[in-house]
Amino acid sequence: MKKKKILIEEQMLSFSRRALLIGGLQIGALGLIVKHLYEIQVIDSQKYLSLSDSNRFNFSLIPSSRGSIFDRKGRILATNTGSFDIEIVPEWSRDIQATLYNLTKYISIDEDEIKTILNLAKKQKSFIPITVKSNIDRQTVSRIAVNVPYLPGVSIERNERRIFPQGSLAVHVTGYVGRVSKSEQNKNSPELFLPGFRIGKSGIELQYDIDMRGLPGTKRVEVNSLGKVIKSSIEKDTIKGKNINLSLDIHLQTFALRRLQAGNDKLISINETKAKKVLDKSKSLAWQLKDDRNHINQNHNGDYVLPESGSVVVMDINTGEVVVSVSAPTYDPNKFDPGISTADWQMLSNHPRNPLINKTISGQYPPGSTFKMMVGLAALETGVISSKTKSFCSGHIEIGDMKFHCWHKHGHGAVDLLDAIAQSCDVFFYEIALKTGINNIAKISREFGLGLPTGINLPGEKSGLIPDRKWKLDVKKQVWRPGETIIAGIGQGYVLATPIQLALMTARIANGGKKIKPTLLKSPILQASNANSVKVSEKNLNIIKRAMEKVSLDEFGTGRNFRLGIKGVEMAGKTGTVQVRRISTKERESEEGVIKNEDRIWEWRDHALYVGYAPMDKPRYAISVIVEHGGSGSSKAGPIARDIMEATLTDDPTKFIPKNPIKKPLI
Amino acid sequence: MENLSILRKILKFDWLFIFMIILLVCIGCLSLYSAAGGDWNPWASRHFQRSIIGFSLAFVIAITDIKIIYKYAWFPFIISIILLLILYITSNQGVNRWLDLGAIKIQPSEIAKISIILALARYFHDINIRDYGKVLYSIFALLIAMPIIILTVIQPDLGTAVMQMLIVAVIIFLAGLRIWLLILSLGAFIASMPLIWFNLHDYQKQRILTHLDPSLDSLGAGYHINQSKIALGSGGVFGKGFLHGSQSHLDFLPEKQTDFIFTMIGEEFGLAGTLFVLMIFVLIMLYSTIISFLQSSQFSRLLCSGIVFMLFSYVFVNVGMVSGLLPVVGAPLPLISYGGSSMLTIFISFGIILSASIHRFDKIEIKNY
Question: Where are the beta strands (DSSP E) in A89-153?
């Protein structure tokens, strides 16, 4: 019994020792826990606090509304419209591919698009949404909205889409918008990373892009662990982009474009059976023929031909406002957002008549006879001739061992400067150009805006080319030769000008030599009253003006057949026909003579040009027309210019046409 | 002293102990109220109902004579094995820890913990006092516990099984296991580690690996640990305030009503809150340890100290897990986490502690001498 009691006591003691040991271990373990909690909750607390906040809040940008573009009378050329887009956030979509295939039940997504989206998902950060499809109709939106729980990561966003209600009419001025490309992304403008964001890619949209974008707002969004938005509050409001009011008159623009495209051809409605037949025959021809018009062209031989291409510029000579700026052919800017199809892009970029180029500022053409005003003025200024100096035109002139031809095979006889301009005598200008010298011609030309960018507010303007001795030596590494001066005398050879430059030149002649600048923004400020004057005597300039008047009024004037149809209002101007290929001596002397313009292939035909201003006695508008490979200036470009000028003047008759027009005596 | 009336027993209750239990239940209810985003439903109200049931059960156990508990000590053990077997038989592939008994769902492996303690306490009480600490008897004790541990491992619920194993080890040790054997068994345990590793499920391996480096897989298994640490850490010293734990309320915290409730307390009440909860547990364990020292029989002594260690293992594993000190194994925080089975186990345990305290002078007869 006693032994047992000892045993029990021993056992008790052993238990107590062991229990204390276990207890000690437990205390130690809990101490470890407390130390660990202290580290997390006190020492590293700040770190975890910021992690917690970044878990919790997302700052998201609210894109600003892009400014609209209006024409001078407030008609909308470009604006925004609501668009429902399907977006997918890779981070919240467990299997993007599967989700996309699920989406195909509701919208059509082809394999290529899926590939593109998957590639994008790999490349960019997984929380950046990717646009799957833009501009979804309401019915599809509601069908997808119902099924969004089964489409992880998919969301329907209401974005703004750019629309150009006027379609292709003013595309070269307004330009178009498109997605932000990688190279255009900029860390300082985070809105550029938004999937629906569009930026200007050409024209006014590019020129005033920053102003038109406005400033994005920010939204503070509290999200849960699934990225679901719990609460959102606006931190900063968006600032709407600036609206742009253009100087363009879209009605005149439309008229000018259609008139240019029509040329001298007969227009056949595409609803007529014969037109339908033609359009059915060739799809690519149909695309090019139809453009965005409801007519196709039939020339005087009965052949169906492409509409005329080229450029028309109408400019206010006092304000510099460009009222019409046509470049044909055109294209529909609406096709570029959300993205142009490969087929359409191929068509556009391979189109033989370059619809993508804005020919008014980027098309460089030899000015031809429209350059004669500059040559004549330079001759008057340098004193090599007076307005009375006469010269004899026999149809050609031999200088050195070279023979230069006048367009009039039999010659103009004895002509002075006014006749030479009115009848466009080449021989007269060969002679005076040689006497005046290329450097003097160049100096005067630049005064009138040729050879350098006009500074119009559009991107991509070309400067044209006014050659002189220095240019030849610097660029061509050759000495200037007199023969080149002779050719330059009739605006060929190296001389190049853009339609906007030709319009500006004409405007500066018309406004008495005021160095206005062309602008596409509506600005009723009379530039002409403050602008510097060209360094030309007023007397000489008036001689040139009188010569241009004579083009229309003289019985032999090249413009006598297309005078304005408004009573008492006349247009002064100058035609131009530009050779684009060299006529060989053999061809000239052959029995058939020079091959007729219409019989050549299109690319070898002459350019038809016209520059002018009206009303003659109280000038208001200057115009330049170029019909690419259109034939002669007097038969093709002139009538087009006449109709457009007529439309321009009658558009607001009380303002532009003098109530009691004074009939000027014929010179 | 032989037969105390029920009233006298109630008067002998350890009221401080009961007060601390009530405190834990209240903390639990408030935390669950917050976890539901400021709503008594669905968890807090149920938690409260369950704790009322639990208290009733604990009360019944507390006034039950310790001799009766001794008498039926094998009974819960056998029930646990049967439940675990049913679970094993009825379970399909995959993880299945809950047994659906129609009205209630229980987790047999939780109930098994207290069953093992009861069974082993009785076993060590019943062997001859001269045989205490003998190798053969220690190994036999291990064999008794084995069916439950094995059935828990194959559920699979490794976390609970390890906890059960530790409880068994501690009881054997307290019962007087020779030191050399302890060293030997520790060696065997370390040697068996690779074997255990290869028999682990992939997700179990993953848990252990991501525990070692949570950033390995920030949106997978390590995600829970990372988010839990962010929640705890962002709470700082005094927390973000009741109902203002952004991590918890924005669902960044997984299982915030069960295993990760401690994290939520840490986020809303900071280090002050976590230390306060830990302090209550330490006080309960301290109190229970004192009661165990006062026991006059081997059975009740081992029973009380086994329960203390079980309570410790719950708290240590849970807090260690949510703070990133231990792998994510799935252990509730007693009386605070939402869940019936662990609450049942804990209330039974506290009932036993109270009973042992009331009947501490009752001697249970020693057989076989």
Answer: 130-136
- pLDDT tens digit string along B112-162? 999 999 999 999 988 877 777 777 888 888 899 999 999 888 877 777 888
**Same-domain pairing of A400 and A542:** yes
Number of Cβ atoms within 10 Å of the Cβ of B351: 23
Cross-chain residue pair A41–B271, CB shorter than 8 Å:
yes
Whether A37 and A89 map to the same domain: the answer is: no
Which of A37, A38, A55 shows the shortest C-beta gap to B230? Answer: A55
Specify whether A427 is located in the same domain as A569.
yes
Nearest CA in chain A to B169: A22
Q: Give the number of C-alpha atoms closer than 13 A to the C-alpha of residue A655, restricted to the C-beta side.
A: 8
Q: Is the pLDDT of residue B208 over 70?
A: no
A389-430 pLDDT tens trace: 999 999 899 888 888 899 888 889 999 999 999 999 999 999
* B229 reaches A (C-beta below 8 A): yes
Element (H, E) at A575: strand A572-578
Do residue B252 and residue A224 have CB atoms under 8 angstroms apart?
yes
**Alpha helices in A291-371, H assignment, sequence order:** 342-350, 359-362
Could you tell me which residues of chain A have a Cβ less than 8 Å from any Cβ in chain B? 4, 7-8, 11, 14-16, 18-19, 22-23, 26, 29-30, 32-34, 36-38, 40-42, 44-45, 47-49, 51-53, 55-56, 222-226, 230
**Which is it for strands A244-245 and A69-70: parallel, antiparallel or unpaired?**
parallel
Q: Hey, are the CB atoms on A56 and B246 less than 8 Å from each other?
A: yes
Q: Are residue A236 and residue A347 in the same domain, yes or no?
A: no
The two structure tokens encoding residue A52: 């917690």
A33 to B278: CB separation less than 8 angstroms, yes or no: yes
Q: Across the interface, do A222 and B274 touch by the CB < 8 Å criterion? A: no
From residue B180, give the alpha-carbon distance in Å to each of A7, B135, B142. Answer: 21, 10, 16
Question: Measured between alpha carbons, how far is A446 from A465 in angstroms, rounded to an integer?
Answer: 10
Question: A56 to chain B: which residues are within 8 Å by CB?
Answer: 246-247, 250
pLDDT in tens, A216-234: 888 777 766 655 666 777 7
CB atoms within 10 A of CB A223: 19
CATH of the domain at A580: 3.40.710.10
H-run or E-run covering B145:
helix B135-153
The ipTM assigned to this model is 0.89
Query: Does the structure show a pLDDT above 60 at A665?
Result: no
Domain coverage including residue A25 = 2-43
Q: Which residues of B touch A229 (CB under 8 A)?
A: none
Inspect the interface and report whether the beta carbons of A42 and B247 lie closer than 8 Å: no
CB contact (8 A) between residue B176 and residue A18: yes
Contact yes or no for A664/A617 (Cβ under 8 A): yes
Q: Assess contact for B112 and B84: CB atoms under 8 A.
A: yes
Token couple for B159: 């976390």
Question: Could you report the per-residue pLDDT of B295-312, keeping only the tens digit for each?
Answer: 888 899 999 999 999 999
Residue A53 placed within a domain: no
**Same domain flag for A154 and A35:** no
B301, amino acid identity: R
Which of B250, B256, B294, B312 should one mutate to test binding to chain A, selecting the residue with the greatest count of A CBs within 10 A? B250
CB nearest to B323's CB, from A18, A37, A230: A37
